[in-house]
Each structure stands twice: as structure tokens, then as C-alpha cells.
Design brief:
This protein is of the alpha/beta class. About 65% of the residues lie in helices and about 5% in strands. The protein has helices spanning about 1-45, 50-65, 80-90, 95-115, 125-145, 155-160, 165-170, 175-190, 195-200, 205-220, 230-235, 240-245, 250-275, 285-300, 310-320, 325-340, 350-365, 370-375, 380-395, 395-415, 445-455, 475-485, 500-505; strands at about 75, 310, 420-425, 430-440, 460-465, 470, 515-519. Strands 3, 4, 5, 6 and 7 form a 5-stranded mixed beta sheet that branches. The protein has a two-stranded antiparallel ribbon with strand order 1-2. The protein is globular and about 95 Å long. The N and C termini lie far apart (about 95 Å).
Length: about 525
């Protein structure tokens, strides 16, 4: 009896293992086919060798894929960091990239060890959406140059300002028009292919779009730029001792902080989104932050691109039926095999096709659908979103996010400092004004205007501040000054005495109690 029961349990476990492996194997192939064009495209757009994008994807699969945290999301180079990486490489050079990524990874490890992962969920969603929108706009603007085989300007405003000149030059060049046709066709295929649902489940859209563009360029022998390949080992450039000396530069430290914070936020927001797509184990945010930090540390040691969890690959992994983390590890294996055995295949890919892929990816970063409902229900959130987006385009990613966060804090302070005055006139003509809510300096002008309006009516005003939940120092001082100018100061209707103001000052900030009477 016991042997029979044991045999049944063993057979059931073997069957589940086989089913899981079969599902994970299929899902890993789907993710691999999506990862190849995206990894190469992000690397090219970041101004680094194409192979480095594959290296980051390999580390994301083989290392981060094995670590605990999230069981379903897949890590690799992300479009969200393309703009920041491009600016860092342009400013500090390719050799310094490894130091930036490695140090950012160590910072993520520290944050995860200190259990700060959950705090990233407290970041304003409007700031995150504004960050992604700003990245999307700058990314699209930059890839409009790449789609025409032209050199893009450095800053976001310069990219947007040069679009008219780009259009003029493109219309006057047959070669540029050929490149635009290739890139536009790639983007169109990315939009149309998913509508054929049966085929899209078998072959992902990015692979189909890039493969068709590559075949068309080869068959028609179009004069367009192709990806340049140096070889996997030649592309890997670990940072040297001289590169670490740059950590003393203030700008380098700011870039590292931006890498760490933005990569962490993007990964953890992706984890929250992926958790809604499946019924399996939920993400441990602190462990996931440690996993991302370990991956970025290794990527930095190899001189590769920074890593984040990528929602496109992660969602494809879940929808392809993945059941365990084996699918993301296997996808790293396929990337390694491809990079080692088929690097020549990258040389066949036209740059314009990858630009089309990234324009499509950048467009999906824009929160077009969310703006309408957000404007109807939370206009303050729209202001934060738009301000963050504009700041990123005008300045850079790090400064734009800081501006957005500061505005979100101001907005939160403004919304929590609700204060209003309830009035009641007694038979003797005295107006009793009761102040309710949170009295902060942000609402002080409005509060004093209302009190002055009551005084101009010729009434005696009794000001009751016992209903305030909070009163900061600015309001405390202003209300006492207002009462002094208009008469005596009393608490709870008792006669004024010499120590009244001293008692009020001892209370300071915090909960407001008692009454101030102006007669």
C-alpha cells in the first residue's frame, strides 16, 4: 500500500517536472527571439558595440535568472536606460561605462540588503510615467535620425530642433529614403503582426519584423548601414584601475546614482506589473533588488550595458506559458549560443530596422491612454507627469526625475494642507470662526484673507483653532500676530494673562489646541 502511494506521488512529480520543462523550454525560445533584436537595437542606440547588449541579456538570464526575487520576470538591457547610457558614453567614454554599471550594481546590493526595495513602491506613479514618457520622446527623436542613417545631435532639445533639417536632407537623398523605407516597414510590421494572433503566438513580432527587413535589404541590395560586429571577446572590456579613478568626479557619481535609482525603480515596477499577470509566487522586492544588483555588478565587470527587468520580455515569458525560473535561465543559454556561434548574423541586420524597433518601443513608453482618465480625475498628477517629461527633454534624465520628485512632494504637501473656516454668528454679533484641517504655510495666505474678510464686515471675531489637526510654525506665528493686531489673546474664553503667548510658543508645531480670541 505504501509502495503504491509512493509510486503514484513519484510519477505525479515526474509528470509535473516534464510538463514544467516543456512549458519553460517553449517560453525560453519565445523570449530569446524577442531578446535578440531588442538587445542589439538598444546597444546600437546606446552608442556601444552590439555584442554588449547580448552580454547583458546573457547575464540577466544565467545569473539574475537563477537568483530569488521574482520568478517570472526577465532581465536584460532596457530601452528606458538608453538615453542615459548614450549620454554617459558620450561624456565619459566607453571604458568608463563598466565602472558606472558596476558601482550602480553595488549600490543596488546595499539597498537590497538594507531592505529598501519596498520603498520604491512609494515613488509617485506620475513621476514614473513622466520619466518613461520623457525617455520615450528623446528615444524616438534620436532614432528618427538612425532610421535615416544620419548622425543624431547630443541633447534632447537638439534632437527635436534638428528634425526639420533631417527631413529636408532625407527627402533629398535616395539612400536615406531607402533606409527610412526599411525602418518604417519594420515599425509597421511590429504593429500589424500581433493582430494575426495565431502566428504571433508562434513567432514574436520583433523577430519577424527584423528578419523581413534584413531579407529585403539583402535581396534588393539596398545601400543602407548595417550593424558593425567586433566579436564577443573583443567587445568585452573590463574596467581597469585608471577607470575607477573617475569615481572622484561629481558628474560620475550623479550618473551612478541615476543608474541605480532608475534601474531599480523600473525593475520593481515591472515586477509589480508581472505579478498581476500570473497566479504564482509574488515578488520579494528586496531579494529582487539584490538580484538586479548582482547582475549589474557582473555586467559592469564585463564592461556591458546596465540591466533592468524588462516588461516586454517578462510579459512574453508569462504569456508563453512559463512556469518556473528555468525559462529565463534557458533564454540566457540561447543568447550565449547565438553570440558565440552566430555573431556574423548581426552584420546582416540594417541599423534602420533596429531604429524602427526602438521607435515602436519608445512609442509604447508614452502614456497616451492614461492621460484622458488622469486629467478627469487627478489633474495635479497630470501636471507632475508633464513637468517631469518636459524637464527630461530640456535637461537630462537624472535632473528631470529630480524635478518631478520635488514637484510631487510639493503637490502632496499642498493637497494634505487642507484648511477651511467655519463661521457662526451669535445673537450678540460675535462671529465665531472655527479653523479646521491642517494649517501650513502653503495655505496661510488664503486663511488670512478669509479672516480679514470677516474683520472688514465690522464684526468681533472669535477664532477657534482647537479643530486643527496640525499647525506649523508659520501659521502659529501668523495667527498670533493677527489676533494681537485686532485685540486681546485668550485661550478657551479665559481672561488673557501674561503667560498666554509663552504657552502658545511652547506648543510649537504639531496638534493645535485652545482658542485665540480677537475682540
Amino acid at each position: 500500500m505504501q509502495k503504491t502511494l509512493f509510486r503514484r506521488v513519484r510519477n505525479a512529480a515526474i509528470t509535473d517536472l516534464r510538463n514544467n520543462l516543456r512549458a519553460d523550454f517553449t517560453a525560453s525560445l519565445v523570449v530569446f527571439l524577442i531578446a535578440v533584436p531588442l538587445s542589439v537595437g538598444i546597444a546600437v542606440a546606446s552608442g556601444v558595440p552590439a555584442e554588449l547588449g547580448l552580454v547583458t541579456g546573457i547575464v540577466g538570464g544565467l545569473l539574475t535568472g537563477l537568483l530569488p526575487g521574482s520568478s517570472m520576470q526577465v532581465s536584460g538591457p532596457a530601452a528606458g536606460l538608453t538615453v542615459l547610457v548614450y549620454e554617459a558614453v558620450r561624456e565619459y567614454g566607453l571604458r568608463a561605462l563598466g565602472v558606472l554599471v558596476l558601482t550602480a550594481g553595488l549600490l543596488q546590493l546595499v539597498m537590497g540588503t538594507l531592505k529598501l526595495g519596498r520603498w520604491f513602491r512609494a515613488i509617485s506613479v506620475a513621476v514614473v510615467q513622466g520619466m518613461l514618457a520623457g525617455i520615450g520622446i528623446v528615444l524616438i527623436a534620436g532614432q528618427l535620425y538612425a532610421i535615416a542613417d544620419a548622425e543624431a545631435p547630443a541633447g534632447g532639445l537638439d534632437k527635436l530642433g534638428g528634425l526639420i533639417s533631417l527631413l529636408t536632407n532625407t527627402l533629398g537623398s535616395a539612400d536615406a529614403m531607402s533606409a527610412v523605407a526599411v525602418g518604417s516597414g519594420t515599425a509597421a510590421m511590429l504593429v500589424l503582426w500581433p493582430r494575426w494572433q495565431r502566428a504571433a503566438r508562434i513567432v514574436p513580432a520583433p523577430l519577424v519584423a527584423v528578419a523581413l527587413a534584413t531579407a529585403a535589404v539583402a535581396l534588393l541590395r539596398l545601400p543602407v548601414d548595417r550593424v558593425q560586429v567586433r566579436g564577443l571577446l573583443d567587445a568585452i572590456q573590463p574596467p581597469g584601475g585608471g577607470d575607477f579613478a573617475r569615481l572622484t568626479e561629481f558628474g560620475v557619481l550623479g550618473t551612478i546614482l541615476a543608474f541605480a535609482l532608475i534601474a531599480s525603480a523600473e525593475s520593481l515596477f515591472s515586477a509589480a506589473a508581472v505579478d498581476r499577470l500570473h497566479d504564482g509566487r509574488r515578488t520579494d522586492y528586496d531579494k529582487e533588488l539584490i538580484a538586479q544588483g548582482a547582475g549589474n555588478t557582473v555586467c559592469g565587470a564585463l564592461g556591458a550595458l546596465p540591466m533592468t527587468a524588462v516588461i516586454v520580455r517578462s510579459a512574453a515569458n508569462v504569456r508563453a506559458g512559463a512556469r518556473t525560473k528555468a525559462s529565463r535561465v534557458l533564454h540566457g543559454v540561447w543568447l550565449l549560443v547565438f553570440a558565440a556561434l552566430l555573431p556574423w548574423a548581426l552584420e546582416l541586420i540594417p541599423v534602420a530596422a533596429l531604429a524602427g524597433v526602438l521607435i515602436h518601443a519608445g512609442w509604447k513608453l508614452l502614456p497616451a491612454r492614461e492621460l484622458g482618465p488622469l486629467w478627469r480625475d487627478h489633474r495635479g498628477e497630470v501636471a507632475v507627469l508633464v513637468t517631469t517629461t518636459v524637464a527630461i527633454v530640456v535637461t537630462n534624465l537624472f535632473e528631470g526625475v529630480i524635478i518631478g520628485l520635488l514637484l510631487a512632494v510639493v503637490k502632496a504637501a499642498w493637497e494634505t494642507s487642507h484648511v477651511h473656516v467655519e463661521t457662526m454668528t451669535s445673537s450678540s454679533g460675535v462671529v465665531r470662526a472655527r479653523v479646521l484641517g491642517n494649517a501650513t504655510f502653503l495655505r496661510l495666505p488664503k486663511l488670512l484673507d478669509e479672516l480679514e474678510t470677516l474683520r472688514r464686515g465690522g464684526h468681533h471675531v472669535e477664532l477657534d483653532i482647537s479643530g486643527l489637526r496640525h499647525m506649523d510654525r508659520a501659521c502659529h506665528t501668523a495667527l498670533l500676530g493677527w489676533a494681537e493686531r485686532h485685540g486681546e489673546i485668550r485661550e478657551d474664553g479665559s481672561p488673557a494673562d501674561k503667560g498666554t503667548e509663552e504657552k502658545q510658543n511652547e506648543k510649537g508645531d504639531g496638534e493645535a489646541t485652545g482658542r485665540v480670541v480677537a475682540v
